Amino acid sequence: MAKMMLHRDVLKNFGKLPAKVQKKVYELTYKFESDSTQASIHLEPIEAAKDKKVRSARVGLDYRAIVIAPEKGDTYLLMHIDHHDEAYQWCMNKQFEAHMALGTFQVFDVELAEQSVRDAETIEYEAETEAYVLQKLSDKELFQAGVPEALIPAIRAVRNDDDFERLSDYLPPEAGQILFGIAAGMTLDDALNEMLGGLDEIEKPTTPGDFSHLADMTNMDLVLVQGEEHLQEILSEDIEEWRIFLHPYQRKLVEWNTKGPMKIFGAAGTGKTVALMHRAAWLAHQCDGDEKVLITTYTTNLSVTIRGLMEKLAPGVIDKIEVTNLHQLARTICFRAQGQAKIAEQDDLKSVWKQVMTSSVASGLDFTPDFVREEFEQVIDPMGITSEDDYLTMVRSGRPVLKRKQRRQIWKLFVEARRQLEYRRLVTFDGLIHQARLVAEKGEFPGYRYVLVDETQDFGLEALRLIAAISPLKEGLNNPLCVVGDGHQRIYNTVPVPMSRAGIDVRGRSRRLKINYRTSEEIRNWAHGVLQGMSIDDLDGDDVATQGDRSVFHGPKPQLVKCSSDDEMVDAVVTWVRGLTESGDIATHEICLTPPNSKVINALESNGLGTVELKARQADPGQEEGGIRFGTKKRIKGLEFKAVAILDFGDSDNVLERFENYVAATRARQQLLVVAKTTGEKE
Ligand SMILES: Nc1ncnc2c1ncn2[C@@H]1O[C@H](COP(=O)(O)OP(=O)(O)OP(=O)(O)O)[C@@H](O)[C@H]1O
C-alpha cells in the first residue's frame, strides 16, 4: 500500500481553500490508502517541469494538487495546492530530492539560488584576502553538509558572509543551518552534531528519487498521513505547526532514552518548551499503572499555558500528566504532610524586616536594611541555609564580598528574621520549598516516575533539591528528570546555582538548541546585543556560547525611538500601534506593551484602541478577546506576540534590568519598538 506525506505548506494553507477543493484533497489522500495505482488517482506528469517526478492531480475545476512521485519506494508527497496556472508555475523549476548523505527531503530552485549570488557579483567588493570559510570545504564535504549536488556551484560562488546570507534563503534549511555552523567556526562534524544532533541511523536513499526511507526519517516539513482520523486532525484549522513538525534535533531530544537526568538549554525562542511538551507526551505513553509525569515551571502563567497546550497535544494520556508551578507543588507537598502553611505576603515581610532592623540584635551593625533583606532573599532562603557554619563556608556567586566577620554579624539578623516569621506562623516561598524538600527527602511524598522542569534558571538550590527528591534519581531509573532552561532569562533568582550542587549530574546528557522559531533574525540579534559583555551560564556553572544561533526567518529591524518627554513617547507608541493595526496583518491581541504605562494606555483608549491587562494565573484569552495587551516584563515571560513595544528602555548596567529587557524583546515575533527616554519628566 502506498503512503502519502503532506508538506507543511499544504497544512498551513488548507483552510484558505474552497470547501469543494478541500473535500477533493481528502478524497485524493484516502485513495492512496486504499488503492494507489496511478490509474485510479489520475496523477498526470507535468512534461515541462524541470523535475520529472512532478505530477499533478485534479482537485476541482481549476485547482491542481502537486504531488511528487517516487522513483523508488511507495511514498508520495503532496506538496502544494493552488489554481491550475499558479500550481504549475510553483513547481516548474523546483527540484525535489531525498538527500543521499543526510536522508532528508529537500526542495530547491537552482536558478534562483545561483541568481542570488550572481546579483552580489555586480556589487563591488574589496579583494578578499583569504578564501571564505565555505570555500575551504571540498565538494564532497559540502555534500556531506547537506548541500544538494546541483547547488554546490552556487556555494562555490559565495565569497563572504553577505553572499552567504543572500544565498541561505534558497538553500534547504538543514543544509543552511549546517553551513551556518561552519561559517560560525565549527568543524563539519561538530556542525552536523550541533545543528542536527547527528545523523539519523537509518538506511540512506540510493538516489535522489528514492523515497523509501522518508517516512522513517525526522523530517522538518513532511508528515505521514496515518489513517482518516489523523488526516482530519492535521488538516483541522487550529492545528499549530509545532504539534506536528519538529526539527530533527528537537525530535532527538524528545525521544532520547537517558540513563540519568538530562538538560536542554538554549536562548529564547529555540523551541525548548515545545521539546519538553513532546517529551512529556512521549514519556506519558510509557507510564505503567499509577505512574505519573510531572511538568513543573517557575511561573504560574507558563504552567497554565503548558497545561492548555498539553491537553491539545496529548489528549489520550493527559490523565498521566500533572502540570504545576514550583510554589503550588511545594504547597501541595507540605499540605499533604503537615497541613496548610500561611505564606508571608509583601506587607508581612516588610513588617518582619522592620522589626528585625530595629531590634537590639541589629544595633551597632553596619548593614543597610535593603542589603540584609537581599542577602536573605537571594542567598540564605533559596539556598536553604540553616546554620552559621554553612553560611561561613558557602559560595555566594554574584553577590558583594562579605568578610568572615561580617558574615558572623549579619547571620544574627537572619536568625532573628526566622524567629519573627515563626512567631507569626508565617513561611516565605523559599521556606515553603525548603520544608517540601525535607518532606520529599524523608519519603513522605510519593514522587513521580518522570519529572520535567521548565524555566530551571530561576530555580534556587532548595528548589533544585526538591526536584531531585521527587524524581526517581536515586532509584537509578531511566529518563528520571529533564531540566530545561536559559541563563539569558534569569529574572527571578539572580544568583546562578549549578544544578550539580543539588546532585543533578547531567554530564554527557546536556544539549543546546540553536534554531530560533519565534523571533526574526533581526530581533534575535538586537536582543542578544542587550546582554553583550555579560557572561551567561549554562545552568551548570559554565559559560554558554551562542555560536551557531540563528532564526528561521527575517523581518524588519527593531525600531528605536528616543523621547525627551512623556508626550513624545505617548505619540510614538500610538502612531506605531496605529500603523500596525491599519496594515491589516496584525490584530490588536497580537500587540503587547511592557511595562504598563497609564499615559500610553489612556491615549490608546481615547484613540479607540482597547487594551487588555495580562493577569497572573490566567492564560491570555487570545483572539477571543481583542485589545492591545500590556503587562510587566515578568508577566509576559513565556508568552509571545507579533509585535512588542518596550516603553522604558535604558542603557542600564543593572543585571536584572538587562535580563528583563532581553526577555521582553524576545517575546516579539515580527516587530519590536524600543522607546528610550533621554531626559525630562518621569511618570
Ligand atoms: N518545530 C517547530 N516548528 C514550528 N514552530 C516551532 C517549532 N518549535 C518551536 N516552535 C515555535 O517557536 C516558538 C518558541 O518555542 P518555545 O516556546 O518552545 O521556545 P522556548 O525556547 O521555550 O522559548 P522561551 O525560552 O523564550 O520561552 C513557539 O511559537 C513555538 O510554537
UniProtKB/TrEMBL annotation:
One BP term from GO: recombinational repair
Signal peptide range in chain numbering: none
Domain of life: Bacteria
GO cellular component term, pick one: cytosol
Entry's Gene Ontology molecular function annotations: 3'-5' DNA helicase activity; ATP binding; DNA binding; hydrolase activity
SUPFAM superfamilies from the UniProt entry: P-loop containing nucleoside triphosphate hydrolases (SSF52540), RelE-like (SSF143011)
The UniProt record lists the keyword Iron: no
Keywords, comma-separated and alphabetical: ATP-binding, Helicase, Hydrolase, Nucleotide-binding
Binding site for ATP: G266, A267, A268, G269, T270, G271, K272, T273
Gene3D superfamilies, per database record: 1.10.10.160, P-loop containing nucleotide triphosphate hydrolases, RelE-like
Record domain UvrD-like helicase ATP-binding: where: 245-529
Protein name as it appears in the record: Superfamily I DNA and RNA helicase
Organism expressing this protein natively: Marinobacter nauticus (strain ATCC 700491 / DSM 11845 / VT8)
